[in-house]
Design a protein that fits this description.
Length: 328
């Protein structure tokens, strides 16, 4: 299968990003698929940002992806803005999508309500650039978290529409979800964990063990006198996702049973959960520290990835231009 996915360089990665998407990227890569992963820096311009920080954010994200286990020998890792044909194809797709389709997009509505003073056209057209990112490589499958499913549906609609109008060109790519496609905020279990929820609402992958302990300690568990169990369930789901050993799995089964019976002792469970997460990311923290000493290596990975990618993307763009009658 040809796998493709991207992630925006806008702030630090959290365990929602990892459990919903990146963990799957690494698994798919190691299962010998043809994998393409990229830093979606053009998408990140649709949010408020500081141009002095952007290049650092791009490099930091690439560093994180490598430290988590993406391997440039197995996957092509590149930078979206350096492959000019993505935005070109997005322009063509702009003419195939109605405004009403974009107005329905949940992520657009959410983000527009957060950045009321900056509801820019890029934010509105975000899913179209995303469709171009995917279709330009004729990807078969896209590993993402649940919040991106609506964008993938639009991508399939665009592919279908294009094929009907101009002849078979694009496969209709499917989304690939993990077992934890939607991790909830530590402070509000009705909202998805997200950078925009504030520092205490998520665990960043770079958080030190003491910080993880503090954040888990203040995480909302069961509320309403134990009637609303969603906070506790979210914490249990996180435990389950990180408990990979047999021992960890049996601990999880016990905690889960106590939770169902209403006898779970959070004073025991929470520190155990925090320790589990800290240990899980110990290797990542060490690898990341090493890579930060060697930014040229990381830059080089992206440059090589860009080189490999541009010719393929350009070929699809030419094929599309040909089908539209633009080549004279
Ligand atoms: P954020 O909402 O924190 O800005 P992004 O939009 O950058 O996160 O998401 C990057 C990737 O991580 C996407 O594939 C997205 O679906 C996934 N993802 C984000 N938040 C979560 C979450 N809470 N649970 C599972 N997956 C998530
Ligand atoms: N929209 C994705 C997110 O918020 C990032 C993204 C951009 C993406 N282009 C993509 C994901 C193409 C998968 C495929 O995380």
């Amino acid at each position: 299968m040809r796998i493709l996915s991207g992630i925006q360089p806008s702030g630090e990665l959290h365990i929602g990003n990892y459990l919903g998407a990146i963990k799957n990227w690494i698994k798919l890569q190691n299962e010998k698929n043809e994998c393409w992963f990229f830093v979606a820096d053009y998408h990140s311009l649709t949010e408020n940002y500081n141009p002095k920080e952007k290049s650092k954010e791009i490099l930091n994200l690439a560093t994180d992806l490598l430290a988590l286990g993406l391997d440039p020998k197995k996957s092509t890792i590149f930078q979206q803005s350096q492959i000019e044909s993505h935005a070109n194809l997005a322009w063509i797709f702009n003419t195939l999508v109605r405004m009403s389709e974009l107005e329905r997009m949940t992520q657009y509505k959410d983000k527009a309500s957060i950045q009321k003073e900056n509801v820019n056209i890029g934010l509105f057209g975000y899913p179209i650039l995303m469709a171009a990112d995917i279709l330009i490589y004729k990807a078969d499958a896209v590993p993402v978290g649940e919040d991106q499913i609506q964008h993938l549906e639009l991508t399939r609609d665009i592919a279908h529409r294009f094929n009907e109008k101009f002849g078979q060109t694009f496969p209709e790519p499917k989304s690939l979800l993990t077992e934890t496609p939607r991790i909830m905020s530590l402070l509000d279990p009705t909202k998805k964990m997200s950078k925009s929820g504030g520092e205490k609402s998520y665990i960043a992958l770079t958080d030190f063990p003491e910080i993880i302990q503090e954040k888990i300690k203040s995480a909302v568990s069961d509320t309403g006198g134990g009637k609303d169990k969603r906070g506790g369930e979210n914490l249990l789901e996180i435990f389950n996702a990180f408990a990979e050993t047999k021992n960890g799995q049996s601990e999880y089964s016990n905690y889960k049973r106590y939770h169902e019976e209403g006898t779970l002792k959070y004073a025991e469970f929470k520190p155990a959960l925090a320790e589990l997460i800290s240990n899980y990311f110990a290797d990542y923290r060490a690898k990341r520290a090493e890579l930060l000493e060697n930014p040229d290596f990381v830059k080089n990975v992206l440059t090589e990835g860009n080189k490999k990618t541009s010719a393929i993307a350009e070929a699809t763009l030419q094929e599309v231009k040909q089908k539209l009658g633009l080549i004279i």
